[in-house]
Write a structure and sequence with these properties.
Length: 330
């Protein structure tokens, strides 16, 4: 595909990986970046930067001018926020505004980055794109905002002719997690020996570069209005921490904590966060989500898109190696 491709969320973890994958294919890339945003993930890349934000419709229109493809990976991704309404404005209203602006400019191909957070759970087992879920199933403002945003994108594809393919990444890890993400922070803590215990939950771990490749496959091969899980290996949290300990030469945690006694601790952490502005180290919503093993299947993407992923061990090793370069892990 020739022409200019706009990537939103390019200063973030997944967005920057998408940019690098596009550049590797010789694509001309423009990125949408908030003024004064942290652009370490874009340093030295041959890209055009359009300043703007999802809450500013005029800036979105300007960023789209002259583009023929769009990857919308921008989102307010935090598991705890003091103002949920702001997250809804960015993730839901901003997505709607961007999609409308893209339609008005005749953008013929769009990939929207949703999340496995919008999907239902199967316990035990693996959820897929058809596992049902409702807004009432969504724990916390982030999951709620992503559920509502994806629902709006799917509605626009069905009712307004929006040309869009939806992808649902699972839990990406790997290099260039500059912020880092909540999962990246967990890896840093575990690799530094600061997680002596864990709760019984599970995640689907995937290398961020495989997620980026999945986005490009969705652009090239995805069916309009369909969604595709971009995941990797399903692992219990205890196994994830064991693997990180082995990578770093530390002793893995062996204490499995029950969730319920941790809720008062999470409440106190959130109250302290409201006073200090620091992000809490444990949250009520995080404990509620930990009830489930968040296991997913990428079979549809593998079958329809030709999506593949490397072993999760490589993804965890890459993440630890990156955090060593930043000094966050010794």
């Amino acid at each position: 595909m020739q022409g200019v491709t706009l990537v939103t969320g390019a200063t973030g973890f997944v967005g920057a990986a998408i940019v690098r994958a596009l550049l590797a294919r010789g694509r001309a890339v423009r990125v949408l970046a908030r003024p004064n945003s942290d652009r370490r993930n874009l340093a030295g890349l041959p890209i055009e930067v359009a300043e703007g934000r999802l809450e500013d419709g005029a800036s979105l229109e300007a960023a789209l001018d002259g583009c023929n493809a769009l990857f919308h990976a921008a989102a307010d991704y935090r598991l705890w926020v003091p103002d949920p309404a702001a997250m809804l404005r960015a993730n839901v209203d901003g997505t709607r505004t961007l999609m409308r602006a893209a339609m008005a400019r005749g953008i013929g191909r769009i990939v929207y980055t949703s999340s496995v957070a919008t999907l239902g759970h199967v316990e035990p087992g693996e959820a897929d794109e058809n596992t049902p879920s409702t807004l009432a199933d969504m724990v916390g403002p982030y999951k709620q905002s992503k559920f509502l945003a994806e629902a709006e994108v799917r509605r626009m594809a069905a009712e307004e002719g929006l040309k869009v393919v939806i992808v649902n990444p699972s839990t990406p890890v790997g290099p260039n997690d500059v912020k880092p993400t909540p999962t990246g922070r967990m890896i840093v803590e575990a690799a530094s020996g600061r997680m002596p215990a864990y709760v019984d939950t599970g995640l689907n771990i995937v290398h961020v570069e495989d997620v980026a490749e999945g986005h490009l496959l969705a652009m090239d091969k995805g069916k309009n209005g369909e969604r595709y899980i971009l995941g990797g290996d399903n692992l219990g949290l205890g196994e994830i921490l064991r693997r990180i300990a082995l990578i770093t030469g530390r002793k893995p945690p062996t204490v499995k904590l029950p969730r319920l006694p941790l809720f008062p601790l999470a409440l106190g952490a959130e109250l302290w966060a409201r006073l200090t502005g620091a992000e809490p180290f444990v949250t009520i919503d995080g404990l509620r989500m930990a009830r489930w093993h968040m296991f997913f299947s990428s079979a549809k993407a593998e079958r329809d898109l030709g999506y593949t992923h490397r072993p999760s061990q490589e993804a965890l090793e890459a993440a630890v190696a990156y955090f060593r370069t930043t000094g966050e892990v010794s």
